[in-house]
Amino acid sequence: MKAYGKLTTVLIVAWFVFALVGGALGLFQNQANRIGAAVGIAAAMPLVLFAIWFAAFESFRKFTLGLNARTLTIAQSGRIIGVTFVILEARRALPAIFAWPAGYGDIFIGATAALVAWKLYGPSHRGSFIFWQALGIADLVTAVGLGTTAGLIQPHGVPMAPMTVLPLSLIPSFLVPLYLMFHVICIAQAREWRSVSSESHFEVAARSNNQALGAPGR
Asked: pTM of the entire structure?
């Protein structure tokens, strides 16, 4: 499992460097009223790799399910950066059709992430924890959908160009798919909480009984 940890760290760092260099070289730049195909490819490839790896390799799946879901949830606090979208929309630098739902959605997720990690983490709040993670996924999917279709909905509206250059290009090319992976891992873990919880209670009860039976002989 340690090998997976090191490999995953290397891959994430390499992915970030690619997104950073790609943005610096203008690979994602697009003056059209939408997020272009280059950003989409940069975001989709890691997700496809993760999905295949997770589905096909049990050892990797065990590794991801062994990560701390509370930490992954707290990491979503970084999405408070969505306030940037709202500010840019107020300055007519991003279209409202994208900035409002994506911005306020990210602000909500980012502002509540620590609370969810602290209060809803655990089997007793399993449903609420999964629901919040699903809301986070819905927010990301909505943002991507509106970012890629804004030009079709409002052909003569404010362009999405700022999202295709640094530093904002890092959001769709790196942060969005990374946060999506975190949500998926947290949901996969939470789905196992009930059985794990029941097993742990059974083991505790069995251990207590064994200790009680063995007590007279000590």
From this structure: 0.85
